[in-house]
# Entry
Amino acid sequence: MAGMLRLSHIILWRSGALAALLVGLVGIAVPVLPTVPFLIVAAWAGGKGWPTLEQRLLTHDKYGPHIRRWRERRAIPRRPKIAASLMMLASAIALQFASVPLWLRIGAPGAMLIVAIWLWRRPEE
# Structure
């Protein structure tokens, strides 16, 4: 019974890691979808149930340093902070001209503001 429970946990962690990895891979091709945050989640979930995937992500030439920087210092470089902030600002402005309910035109920019504040409070290096 304990073996079955352990196996089901591994399957869940691997499924989560794979889902995050796939979204991250889509983010490589789609400019408005961030890649690194999903790879950070994939490495985290991989560490719970798929150690070889976690190691591959941590040692990846391009994305590994970002994942390790997040793990070590919870740091986000300035360029991604600026890019994310500008994308949120553009989204908030576009939302004001969309035919969506008032609560969404107010709530979404409010949520984006909270994310931006959190983002800029993270260390850069």
